[in-house]
Design goal:
41% helix, five-stranded parallel β-sheet, 5 strands, pyruvate-formate lyase- activating enzyme
Length: 259
């Protein structure tokens, strides 16, 4: 059984996206690629579904945001550059840690920290707006790296920054705890206690407005550390606004030219 047969793939995603944009019910707005799944995971190198979707975004001139941990995004710099010229794209590069060994154990099949920083520089150098996402921040493990991550990203051309606290919804919680105990037993107790501290004694939080940032003294300390360094590095001065004024619906075939 090959790797592709073990994963869920929406092979017709580009066609479905085009169908949605052609619908008179579609109102142009920013669409986010990635969320629970990285749109540049390794199989994308073979399938090129993300690239084909980007071609659809450019064709209809609909704004799009990308979140990724992988340097593969630079493969599509030609399309991203055209989208950027119309204010239709922001790429967010997620940097969890600058510790290459930790990332290899914690985020397999993603680019090493130095490659993510190189990706920021490559995209920014091509005129593509880049946000650095310090995500997820793991209290007691990676929160102390916030200043250095922001500094390295800013030096390479990132123009904005954001962060999120580690979330452990549903089945993710036992998987994370098992990984933590297996890979970092000496830090396990500290990390779990810190997470509980900003989750009101729990390990997970589903409430909107609380699940991404946490609450309590620990959450406030992380926020302050982030905000102080973001201001210091001028990563809070540019507010990007996606353009929807360029949106267009392509005619159906050549006959549409004469309508």
């Amino acid at each position: 059984m090959d790797f592709e047969s073990k994963i869920v793939v929406k092979h017709d995603a580009p066609e479905l996206l085009e169908k949605a944009f052609k619908s008179p019910r579609w109102k142009p707005e920013m669409v986010s690629l990635s969320g629970n799944t990285d749109c540049y995971q390794p199989v994308e190198r073979k399938l090129e579904l993300t690239r084909r979707c980007l071609e659809v975004f450019l064709k209809f001139r609909n704004p799009v945001g990308i979140v990724t941990k992988n340097a593969l995004v630079t493969r599509d710099i030609d399309i991203l550059g055209e989208l950027a010229s119309l204010n239709l794209i922001v790429v967010s590069i997620s940097v969890t840690s600058l510790d290459g060994d930790l990332i290899k154990r914690m985020e397999p099949r993603t680019s090493a920290p130095y490659k993510r920083l190189e990706t920021i520089q490559t995209l920014a150098g091509a005129g593509i707006p880049v946000t650095v996402m310090v995500a997820p921040v793991i209290p007691g493990l990676t929160d102390e790296e916030i200043p250095s991550i922001l500094k390295e990203a800013a030096a390479r051309g990132a123009t904005s920054a954001t962060y999120t606290i580690l979330r452990l919804p549903g089945p993710v919680e036992p998987l994370f705890l098992d990984w933590l105990e297996r890979e970092l037993p000496e830090r396990s107790t500290r990390v779990v206690n810190r997470i509980r501290e900003l989750r009101g004694g729990k390990l997970s939080e589903s409430r909107w407005g609380k699940r991404m940032k946490g609450e309590g003294e620990m959450a406030r300390a992380i926020k302050q550390l982030f905000e102080v360094n973001r201001r210091k590095l001028a990563l809070d001065t540019r507010k990007f606004e996606f353009s929807t004024g360029h949106f267009r619906r392509e005619p159906e075939g050549q006959l549409g030219l004469f309508v």
